Amino acid sequence: MQVINATGRRKSAVARVYLHEGKGNITINGKDLKDYFPSELLQYVVKQPLQILDLLGNYDVKANLDGGGISGQAEALRLGIARSLVEVNAEYKPALKANGLMTRDPREVERKKPGQPKARKKFQFSKR
Fold it and tell me: What domains, with CATH codes, occur in the chain?
């Protein structure tokens, strides 16, 4: 089996995922999954597509993550893994879609406007 690559994005994080048959190793930017994401919750988020399809020990994942914070990177990686699994076998798509893993979350940070302290917050109004 050749290497299958896909891209996942979330907020400002971008994950380039390379999937191939193996023993279930997940390598991110040259580090092991447990070293890159010490939080159990983020490790669960990354493994979600593989756990839903019971393929946890079948594929090796090599990923390059760039931009964003740790939660955005984890969710970008999850989308990239889900997309690459669908490229391997199109029959996986309904199960992944039912769990909401095939949808790119479009929410981005709203820009700060001039004359305001934040995007929507205003300075306190004073009548006099």
Answer: 4-98 (3.30.230.10)
